[in-house]
Amino acid sequence: MAEEQKKGLEGVVIADTRLSKVFGDIGKLIYCGYDIRDLAAHASFEEVVFLLWYGALPTQQQLARLQERLHSEATLHPTVLQALKSYPTSAHPMAVLRTAVSQIGLNDPAAEDNSQDANYRKALRLTAKIPTIIAAWARLREGKEPVAPRDDLGLAANFLWMLHGHEATPAEVDALNVYLVLLADHGMNASTFTSRVVTSTEGDMYSAIVAAIGSLKGPKHGGANEAAMRMFREVAEAPSVREWFDHEVKDKGRRIMGMGHRVYKAPDPRAAILKEHANAICGAKEKCVLLGVAEQLEDLALADPYFVERNLYANVDYYSAIVLDAIGIETDMMTPMFAMSRIAGWSAHIVEQWNDNRLIRPRGNYIGAVDLHWTPIEDRRSE
Ligand code: COA
To answer: N or C: which end of the chain has fewer CB within 10 A?
Structure first.
């Protein structure tokens, strides 16, 4: 790497954006000017979707219209449902989501239309259908029939209805709504960047979203919620949280999943809000055990000089794993839940990129050999 550059594009600005800003040094996040704490306290996910797409909070009429359009798009095309039924039940739900979203693009006659109107229609379609795909897959892989979406429920309540086949409690709906609000956008994170890179080539929205889903899947990004949940279960099996921390983290150097962040060097504001909701919703015994484990582990890290020196705090994935578990989301379905929310931000960024596009094409620092002489194949020796 050239000396002045840091690995991983750290600190590199790739676009102007009006969508969200992470104030990493003070632990603050805004969407289009609004503090995430206010949005989490007051907004529905649909209001946040509107805010990100159109840059202002909706009026009652605008919100009602958006909800109506989301309802009208929530049902899956029979070929998509048919395809879901043919996927191997062992497939990772993120791989299923990636494939199903691609298939939705196949059924869209306007898939190659990159006009702003067409892109808003695609954004709406995907925001409406991703919850239906996730709920349908969760049931199909357990041999159950999918439950059709309802048009009298908000997005969070409707998802839990389709997932469980019965209405969720207000506390569960509230927890999921807050989760969706908190994860809708987050500056130039890896999956958003991925979606903008694809868009910058003038690639269509479905291609950009499929690529973003692939980027979100990894454990250093969206996959961290799933990894954190598995880790909490492992810690719960250990003789004590302290023993696990000393052995696995201090002696073996394992990372605590759901901790640390490229941009936040102060506590992630989303983690504190999710921690409150985890405490509010955590009723059942086993769920409380895991929340207790997560809190004890966080306390150990907060008191440890290694974590303090590096400003490593719980990030959004840490307590979102506990919240999602408490509302009945299987561990390997947690990253698709992230995508269910982030589709709002991805699609808003794609529209923004189209409005002021230039091909994103960085360079590599070549460190290989030069001026080698061609060797005929019969003269080559394996090293
Ligand atoms: N547990 C223990 N140590 C950690 C850590 C964690 N979760 N996250 C980072 N560190 C340490 C690294 O070992 C490194 O230490 P060093 O300076 O002695 O080498 C230092 O903190 C910086 O880590 P680095 O991986 O260079 O930071 P990054 O900005 O490239 O990575 C993450 C950021 C998020 C990928 C990283 O913190 C991580 O892997 N966290 C766990 C996965 C996760 O929660 N991802 C979701 C992010 S929202």
So the answer is: C
Distance 345 CA to ligand 1 centre (A): 24
- Taking domain 224-326, whether its CATH number is 1.10.230.10 is answered by yes
Residues catalogued as catalytic: 261, 317
Q: What is the pLDDT of residues 39-76, one digit of tens each?
A: 999 999 999 999 999 999 999 999 999 999 999 999 99
**Tokens at residue 196, please?**
């903008």
Give me the helices (H) in the chain, please.
36-42, 45-54, 60-73, 78-86, 93-106, 116-140, 155-164, 170-182, 190-200, 205-216, 224-237, 241-244, 269-281, 285-302, 305-309, 316-326, 334-355
Pocket of ligand 1 (CB under 6 A): 8, 220-221, 224, 255-262, 310, 312, 315-317
Ligand 1 centroid vs 280 CA: distance in angstroms? 29
Low-confidence residues of the chain, pLDDT below 50?
Answer: none
Contact 246, 271 (CB under 8 A): no
The tens digit of pLDDT for each residue in 100-111 reads 999 999 999 999
Q: How far is the CA of 312 from the centre of ligand 1 (A)?
A: 8
Ligand 1 atom showing the smallest separation from residue 262 Cα? 29
CATH of 16-168+184-217+333-355, one of 3.60.20.40, 1.10.580.10, 1.10.10.10, 3.40.50.1820: 1.10.580.10
Give CATH 1.10.230.10 domain extents, the chain.
Answer: 224-326
DSSP secondary structure letters along 173-184: HHHHHHHHHHTS
Strands laid side by side in the 34-35 sheet: 20-23, 28-31, 34-35
